[in-house]
Amino acid sequence: MLFFTQCFGAVLDLIHLRFQHYKAKRVFSAAGQLVCVVNPTHSLKYAPTRCAAGQTSAEQGVLPPCHNHEAVHDPQLVPCTCPLFSCPWQGHLEVVVSHLRQTHRINILQGAEIVFLATDMHLPAPTDWIIMHSCLGHQFLLVLRKQEKYEGHPQFFATMMLIGTPTQADNFTYRLELNRNQRRLKWEATPRSVLECVDSVISDGDCLVLNTSLAQLFSDNGSLAIGIAITTSKVHNTEGEM
Amino acid sequence: MLFFTQCFGAVLDLIHLRFQHYKAKRVFSAAGQLVCVVNPTHSLKYAPTRCAAGQTSAEQGVLPPCHNHEAVHDPQLVPCTCPLFSCPWQGHLEVVVSHLRQTHRINILQGAEIVFLATDMHLPAPTDWIIMHSCLGHQFLLVLRKQEKYEGHPQFFATMMLIGTPTQADNFTYRLELNRNQRRLKWEATPRSVLECVDSVISDGDCLVLNTSLAQLFSDNGSLAIGIAITTSKVHNTEGEM
């Protein structure tokens, strides 16, 4: 009797998992892609911008770590700050990945095409959803941020950063795609290097930007699915299909 | 001698036209498409929103023209206001096109795929760029608006409206595409009916939205090229390529 109860429980678990998987899959149409459920990181208390502080140091003749990488010949030894805003960590580029994994518990996923499923979109700004994405011999960092650029009007900003130098980043193209409720939005660009500030990319709006009502139209039950694809782009092809 | 001078003048004109055409074409990659240069309409002085006024009338039991179309059986006889905000014109749906052409001098273009080249993007908000687009047996209205949704932060909003009823609009899908500076942005959605308020679509942000810095990245010498394509979509295909 116990055996049958356990079997029944296992079957129920399988059905539940299948349903969860189906729910995650159906928000994004492409077949055969890895769906990664990404929970929000804790709300970050935004201090006065680190980049601005960096500029002040530069004016005083002391270059901040994210601006003096051009003098270093080995990209892995370029001094680098943690791309997460609230973290004061500094180190070399080669150890950023282990810092992000160990200190911030950020997941790393394999594959050129994945679906990033950000949960709890209703949480108040500022909130970040972050994963690392390993493909084509490099690690990339996808940052989705809910932020009030204009007070009382939270927006969502999504960008892809290469954990590498700007020269290495120029060899890739990333694509973010939202697809739901008879609307489709695609953003394609060259990833930025983590040596540049994530915050300045987001504050410039040089990324995928969604207002709250559009994010709601694209989200399903409080979760937003973003299809991610990364390709190499030695010669950027403007004629090709997106 | 006069003949040769005239010939030389004609050749220079041809070279100039060819250069202008090339300039317009190269901002958008697709070949064989009609490029339409769209000058801004005069800056509109935005009064308190007409839709809000309509809602007040509805509360008082008097439905505004854009809300009582469901009771009329012939779509061509549906009462309709002018989709341009500052215009107080009211009439039937069947005469909106002639009103827009005659009163507002809005161009009408033929073809399922065209390039909308909006000039003078630097002009202060509010500014509209508008064309009519005739294809698949219907007329569509493309509205690009520069507006300060948040004071001091102008944004660009682009949407496509069908000059027809919401039921007719559901049969189509439109696509807007920007492509420049190693960035590509595509927006695909069902057009809205001109019986709905253009202003509410834009204020909801349920359209293609660009901040100023992104608009600058996509523009060339002060002009923004938007590729437009319209297709029928009786059954909305979520699996198809965008």
UniProtKB/TrEMBL annotation, chains A, B:
It comes from the Eukaryota. This is E3 ubiquitin-protein ligase. Its EC number is 2.3.2.27. It holds the Pfam family Sina_TRAF. One of its GO terms (biological process) is proteasome-mediated ubiquitin-dependent protein catabolic process. The lineage of its organism: Eukaryota, Metazoa, Chordata, Craniata, Vertebrata. The keyword Iron does not apply. GO terms for cellular component: cytoplasm. It catalyses: S-ubiquitinyl-[E2 ubiquitin-conjugating enzyme]-L-cysteine + [acceptor protein]-L-lysine = [E2 ubiquitin-conjugating enzyme]-L-cysteine + N(6)-ubiquitinyl-[acceptor protein]-L-lysine. SUPFAM superfamilies: TRAF domain-like. Residues 134-228 form the Seven-in-absentia protein TRAF-like domain. It comes from Calidris pygmaea (Spoon-billed sandpiper).
